[in-house]
């Protein structure tokens, strides 16, 4: 065996004599074998070396990493250095005069799968997963994936893989793989046997580009129906439609012309604001875990057992996260019937997942076995982490923490799920404020990916690091924030609801406001959201904050009237809208408009027609302005953290990248000028609520972006 290392790509020859040697080309670019420039250069050099060696009869491309390849190195997107471009590498592979066999020893995504598709044969193991997830970055497979995959997997299968971006197990792709072995451990031996068979059978070359697609397998109706089927989830995104058009080109055009069309559509996507937003968010999510509050030398505490205070909807959802990760949980309720009810609800949730095929019945029992209950604080004496999820009232939470301080072992982390309250006040109820941290889960806690990790004034670095690491284990995206009312997410959403209410007072009706915000990309408008969550939740928060809002007699006054009339939302069958029994569909109610009219008259507010643009700007721009204040105060470390919170916690459209990225995209001067305009035009309301943040003013005047900070 001869070997030659070419850095990101290693080359060796398996000597078998009689000009039947096999060239082994190994990608080795940790951690995920991204197809960086060095890999592309290395692949070309290795393939050319193998082709020029008369003793080599076949070429195998595989990986030294646990992945075959995670795809393109998207950090190169901003630099623009694509030489040599991946299509050039794949063209060399596909047109090679010797058979090239891809041995996928692990997942192949994006460009990694495109490399495999350009090879003449593909070998992997049954459970391995492959996919083309480029749509999640606002683009499409740009190295022949939209042309080759339909030829091998079939048009319908390829269309769904490319447009959804979802990975698929190799065993479900018989057209793509020439050999699928059952066990990963035997892959290399069986792959080499397959390679020798290819050589002994005459080294036949099977080029994907030469496969023809039967038009009868892809009638126009297939694409029409697919477009209709994805319309709701593709709303607002740019790339899905271009993905469909690229697959249509694979059916209607010869291979080379199809590649040209794919290239055109790829460049359209790359130039789109949606791609910029989605790629920003890709990096933002990863950057959220990089914080300055600890480093590699900071120790972590073991989390082997968890306590949850409160077995209600939130407490139960939090508990499920830990059971799902194999961590035992003790749930505490002071009354046995409340505990029994909470555990029964968790079982019901798991059994519903089993009915949908997401869990086996055995898995349901495994997870339930990890969940225990108690009515005594003494049973929390051995937990490593305890999370309080009780009523959102300071006196209640402080009482809980005093009890925990008395029974929990030294070094136990004491966490609060508070969504608005001062964590430092809660920590002050204990003798160990350094062990207290906020873990703000979003509802439903077993589904929502976001976790706001709130560091108190005295929270120790190892507690912060431990909880940030723990978040990954329970499959959450953690964002570290500081202490203030509502932290980041709920502090910002206050302005969102406030302006929606004020707009109704000024003459807009709920359905108009909701439509504008839905069309912007939010999953629902503010009035629908209020009804779904319960209008009384906001009411109770406002009652506790009278000292901060009493200067404005119009503050959410319509929402207050609704609650006072029992119109608390969906659960009551009426809120900002009416609801038929058993239905979640909002029905406009003229009575609500009449309430708004009466309150406007009482407060001397003139009602008028309000444009879509004003509605959008008055609801979204104060959100951005509050984000600027949060950055100034150091509550959030970076603007991208705010974007992660808003996409994962509040449904802000990812194709806009989050509120701060959206502001960067449209220009901070646009936001600043609008804030000044409404400050000057809206009388006392404008003076109260539309004062531009100093940071927004500064960046707008300098022509800078939040991302420049």
Structure in words:
Strand 15 (413-416), helix 15 (423-427) and strand 16 (436-441) form a beta-alpha-beta unit. 48% of the residues lie in helices and 12% in strands. It is globular. The longest helix is centred in the last third of the chain and has 22 residues, at 612-633. It has 29 helices and 18 strands. It has three domains: 2-269, 2-enoyl-CoA Hydratase, Chain A, domain 1; 306-483, NAD(P)-binding Rossmann-like Domain (Rossmann fold, 3-Layer(aba) Sandwich), CATH 3.40.50.720; 490-708, N-(1-d-carboxylethyl)-l-norvaline Dehydrogenase, domain 2 (Orthogonal Bundle). It has 709 residues and is of the alpha/beta class. The strands form three sheets. It has an eight-stranded mixed β-sheet, sandwiched between helices. The chain has a seven-stranded mixed β-sheet with strand order 1-2-3-4-5-7-10, sandwiched between helices. The model has no long low-confidence stretch (mean pLDDT 95).
List the SSEs and their pairings:
Layout: E1 2-6, E2 9-14, E3 21-27, H1 37-52, E4 56-63, H2 86-94, E5 100-103, E6 108-109, H3 111-118, E7 121-125, E8 129-131, H4 145-153, H5 155-164, E9 168-169, E10 179-181, H6 187-200, H7 220-230, H8 239-252, H9 255-270, H10 273-287, E11 306-309, H11 313-324, E12 329-332, H12 336-355, H13 361-369, E13 371-374, E14 385-388, H14 394-407, E15 413-416, H15 423-427, E16 436-441, E17 450-455, H16 461-473, E18 477-481, H17 489-505, H18 510-520, H19 526-533, H20 535-544, H21 546-549, H22 557-564, H23 590-603, H24 612-633, H25 639-650, H26 659-666, H27 668-681, H28 683-689, H29 694-702
Parallel strand pairs: 3-4, 4-5, 5-7, 6-8, 7-10, 11-12, 11-14, 12-13, 14-15, 15-16, 17-18
Antiparallel strand pairs: 1-2, 2-3, 8-9, 16-17
Helix pairs in contact: 1-2, 2-3, 3-4, 4-5, 4-8, 5-8, 8-9, 10-25, 11-12, 17-24, 18-24, 20-22, 22-23, 24-27, 26-27, 27-28, 27-29
């Amino acid at each position: 065996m001869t070997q030659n290392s070419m850095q990101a790509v290693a080359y060796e020859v398996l000597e078998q004599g009689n000009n039947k040697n096999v060239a082994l080309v190994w990608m080795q670019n940790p951690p995920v074998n991204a197809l960086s420039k060095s890999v592309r250069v290395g692949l070309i050099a290795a393939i050319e070396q193998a082709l020029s060696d008369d003793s080599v009869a076949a070429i195998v491309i595989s990986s030294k990493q646990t992945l075959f390849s995670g795809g393109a190195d998207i950090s190169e997107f901003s630099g623009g250095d694509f030489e040599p471009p991946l299509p050039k590498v794949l063209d060399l592979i596909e047109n090679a005069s010797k058979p090239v066999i891809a041995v996928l020893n692990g997942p192949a995504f994006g460009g990694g799968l495109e490399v495999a598709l350009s090879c003449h044969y593909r070998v992997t193991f049954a459970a391995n997963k492959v996919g083309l997830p480029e749509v999640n970055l606002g683009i499409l497979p740009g190295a022949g994936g939209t042309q080759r995959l339909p030829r091998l997997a079939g048009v319908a299968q390829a269309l769904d893989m490319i447009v959804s971006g979802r990975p698929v197990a190799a065993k479900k792709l018989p057209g793509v793989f020439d050999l699928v072995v059952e066990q990963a451990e035997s892959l290399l031996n069986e792959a080499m046997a397959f390679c020798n068979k290819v050589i002994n059978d005459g080294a036949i070359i099977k080029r994907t580009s030469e496969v023809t697609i039967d038009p009868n397998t892809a009638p126009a109706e297939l694409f029409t129906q697919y477009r209709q089927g994805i319309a709701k989830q593709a709303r607002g995104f740019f790339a899905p439609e271009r993905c469909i058009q690229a697959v249509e080109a694979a059916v209607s055009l010869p291979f080379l012309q199809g590649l040209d069309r794919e290239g055109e559509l790829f460049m359209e996507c790359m130039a789109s604001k949606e791609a910029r937003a989605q790629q920003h968010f890709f990096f933002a999510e990863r950057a959220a875990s990089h914080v300055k509050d600890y480093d590699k030398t900071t120790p972590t505490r073991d989390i082997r057992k968890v306590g949850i205070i409160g077995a209600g909807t939130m407490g139960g959802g939090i508990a499920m996260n830990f059971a799902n990760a194999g961590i035992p949980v003790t749930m505490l309720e002071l009354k046995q019937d409340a505990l029994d009810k909470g555990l029964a609800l968790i079982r019901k949730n798991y059994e519903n997942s089993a009915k949908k095929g997401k869990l086996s019945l055995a898995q349901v029992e495994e997870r339930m076995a990890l969940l225990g209950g108690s009515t005594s604080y003494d049973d929390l004496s051995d937990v490593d982490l305890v999370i309080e999820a009780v009523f959102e009232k300071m006196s209640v939470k402080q009482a809980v923490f005093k009890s925990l301080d008395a029974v929990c072992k030294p070094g136990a982390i004491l966490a609060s799920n508070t969504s608005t309250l001062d964590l430092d006040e809660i920590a002050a109820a204990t003798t160990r404020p350094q062990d207290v941290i906020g873990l703000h889960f979003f509802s439903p806690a077993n589904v929502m990916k976001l976790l706001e990790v709130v560091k108190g004034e005295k929270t120790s670095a190892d507690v912060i690091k431990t909880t940030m690491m723990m978040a990954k284990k329970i499959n959450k995206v953690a964002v570290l924030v500081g202490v203030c009312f509502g932290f980041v997410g709920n502090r910002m959403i206050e302005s969102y609801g406030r302006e929606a209410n004020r707009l109704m007072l000024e003459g807009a009706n709920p359905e108009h406001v909701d439509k504008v915000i839905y069309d912007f990309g939010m999953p629902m408008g503010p009035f629908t959201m209020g009804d779904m969550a319960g209008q009384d939740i906001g009411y109770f928060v406002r009652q506790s904050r009278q000292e901060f809002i009493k200067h404005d007699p119009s503050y959410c006054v319509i929402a207050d009237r609704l609650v006072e009339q029992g119109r608390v939302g969906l659960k009551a069958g009426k809120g900002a809208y009416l609801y038929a029994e058993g239905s979640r569909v909002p029905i406009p109610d003229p009575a609500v408009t009449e309430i708004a009219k009466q309150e406007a008259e009482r407060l001397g507010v003139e009602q008028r027609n309000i444009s879509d643009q004003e509605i959008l700007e008055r609801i979204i721009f104060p959100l951005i302005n509050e984000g600027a204040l949060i950055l100034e105060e150091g509550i959030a470390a970076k603007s991208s953290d705010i974007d992660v919170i808003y996409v994962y916690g509040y449904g802000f459209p990812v194709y806009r990248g989050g509120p701060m990225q959206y502001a960067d995209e449209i220009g901070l001067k646009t936001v600043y000028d609008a804030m000044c305009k409404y400050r000057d035009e809206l009388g006392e309301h404008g003076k109260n609520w539309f004062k531009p943040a100093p940071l927004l003013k500064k960046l707008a005047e300098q022509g800078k972006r939040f991302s420049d900070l």
